[in-house]
Amino acid sequence: MKRGGLSRAAALAAAVACASAAPACRSDAPAPAPPPAASEASAPRPPVDQALPGELAEGTEQAFGLPIPRRMKVRARFPDAVFAVGEIPAERVANYVRTRVLAGNVETGPAKTIFSRATVKSAPQRMLRVEVVSRAHVSELVVRDETRPPPERGLSVEERWRRSGLTPDGKVLDPTRLE
């Protein structure tokens, strides 16, 4: 029975011939790598010294190891907190912080993003609380150092209680200090 130009036997013979010839066509050289996917080939890679579109660049000032974005100005600096302000959308500032810290908890709201129990990836020795707040047309970045001081060595239990202003029973040593 002949349909479409080849008989069943001829088609079977052609298949056997191709299968037996396939090993002879092989070479010991590895197959060429497939071309990169269209999305990989067309994705622009910025030079090392440039930021991606929409990405904030690091500035020269720091808050406890966290670089402040270049377009923000430090308005106040205290021993345990740094306040910076800039005309940048709060979402971009939050994304900037997100790429630079490891946070134990992140709370996101419409006007504020809080990174609590955070450490800076490049300086993990400090425990921080970072807040990004949207105020009118500006964003405020608040970085608080919540690192606990190391405990004093060699103190007795009674001395620790006394330094906190309490007796070992939990009673106040000097009630006038509470006023």
Report on this model:
By secondary structure, this protein is of the alpha+beta class. Helices cover 23% and strands 35% of the residues. It has a six-stranded antiparallel sheet with strand order 5-6-10-9-8-7, covered by helices on one side. The radius of gyration is 33 Å and the shape is elongated. The mean pLDDT is 79.
Outline the fold blueprint.
Elements: E1 2-3, E2 6-7, H1 8-25, H2 38-42, E3 58-63, E4 66-69, E5 73-77, E6 81-86, H3 90-100, E7 101-108, E8 112-120, E9 123-135, E10 138-145, H4 157-163
Antiparallel strand pairs: 1-2, 3-4, 5-6, 6-10, 7-8, 8-9, 9-10
Largest β-sheet summary: 6 strands, antiparallel
Cα-based radius of gyration, to the nearest Å:
33 Å
Mean pLDDT: 79
Q: Uncertain regions: pLDDT < 50 for 5+ in a row?
A: none
What form results from the Cα inertia axes? elongated
Strand order of the largest sheet: 5-6-10-9-8-7
Binned, the helix content reads 10-25%
Counting helices, strands and paired strands, the structural category is alpha+beta
User: Approximately what portion of the residues adopt beta-strand conformation?
Assistant: 35-45%
List SSEs in N-to-C order: EEHHEEEEHEEEEH
The strand count comes to: 10
* Number of distinct helices: 4
Report the end-to-end length measured between terminal Cα atoms. Answer: 110 Å
